[in-house]
Amino acid sequence: MTIADLNQRHAIASHIQFKEGPGRLTVAEIANAHASASIALQGAHLMTWQPKGQEPVIWLSKFAKFSPGKSIRGGVPVCWPWFGPHASDSKLPGHGYARTVMWEVLETRAMPDGSTFIRLGLIENDATRAQWPHPSSVQLEITAGPTLHMALITHNSGAQSFTLGEALHTYFHISDVARMTIHGLEGCDYMDKAGGASELRTQQGGIVITSEVDRVYMNTAADCLIEDRGLQRTIRIAKQGSQSTVVWNPWTAKADQMGDFGPEGHRGMVCVESANALGNVVSVAPGETHRMVVEYSVEALG
Ligand code: BG6
Asked: Which CATH class is domain 3-176+212-224+238-297?
């Protein structure tokens, strides 16, 4: 669908319009009474969300590359239908294919409280069906307002159960990694993957990051709080239908290798991903719909 068609069907004055964005990607731009946000239709990839009067809550690399078929560094990549490497075929893309294929706009709405709602659906093709041979559909609902609400909805339309891994791989904007602590995972067991290892550990106290961190916390549904002493604010991450939380910061060497962080780019971000990964993958029965929901909000640091 062309941008003109998208605007004709789905634009709403003072809420949402469609534009050509960087790398010629089609982008839904939201600007309402509460916040601004932008979403690339490739990957249903939310790139920005900024409530009025706040610094951006979502981090997008200044060196992000925007091109067809490539995941964007920053924002909220949708990892689906598996998280991390594929369980049996290492040739398949890490974190699944949902973040690099086109999604379509199914619906937009102006909400009574002034927020803006958009619902997107992944467009299947022969390549996606070859990687995921399960009759199914996936949609992402985003409501951008004073809070950011996202629901990743998977439906099994086939006759067999399938096993689903997923994450909303959110990059949060922080003042400086040295001035933040993550709370909410105290006492949780996690798989420590930093440096390519795989070791089971237990979290003691809040999370302070001073080197590469790549951890999958398991069996945790609790809210996480990113306490940012530089910006004097706390980002609250509430979730439903998610039993894992991934915390990731590549630190200097890995970020330099990746090539799209920029010098010291890792200092201004942390990923806190609401997920179902490792032992928390979800079995979706025929006819069943699984929802994983997050809500992000910002509170002044007391
Ligand atoms: C995290 C993983 O979720 O995503 C890390 O735990 C990985 O191992 C990171 O490096 C980034 O992945 P990608 O594929 O977007 O570079």
From this structure: mainly beta
Report residue 13 as tokens. 């004055």
DSSP secondary structure of 212-264:
-EEEEE-S----EEEEETTTTEEEEEEEES--EEEEEE-HHHHHHHHSSS-TT
Cα atoms in the 13 Å half-sphere on the side-chain side of 43: 29
Task: Provide the residue count of the chain.
Answer: 302
pTM over 0.85: yes
- Terminal Cα-to-Cα distance of the chain (whole angstroms): 48
User: What would the DSSP string read from start to end of 156-175?
Assistant: E-SSS-EEE-EEE-PEEE-S
Token representation of residue 194: 């930093």
The C-alpha atoms of residue 104 and residue 172 are separated, in whole angstroms, by 26
The pLDDT of residue 302 is above 80: no
What lines the ligand 1 site, CB under 6 Å? Answer: 71, 94-95, 169, 193, 214, 246, 248, 273
Contact present, 99 and 78 (Cβ < 8 Å) = yes
Residue 88 is predicted with a pLDDT of 94
Q: Over the stretch 225-268, which tens digit does the pLDDT of each residue have?
A: 999 999 999 999 999 999 999 999 999 999 999 999 999 999 99
Distance CA 268, CA 262 (A): 11
> In degrees to the nearest 10, what's the CA dihedral of 122, 128, 131, 137?
30
Atom of ligand 1 nearest to the CA of 258: 16
Ligand 1 center to residue 148 CA distance, Å?
22
Distance 84 CA to ligand 1 centre (A): 7
CB 65 within 8 Å of CB 23: yes
Break the chain into its structural domains and give their ranges.
3-176+212-224+238-297
pLDDT tens sequence across 163-177: 999 999 999 999 999
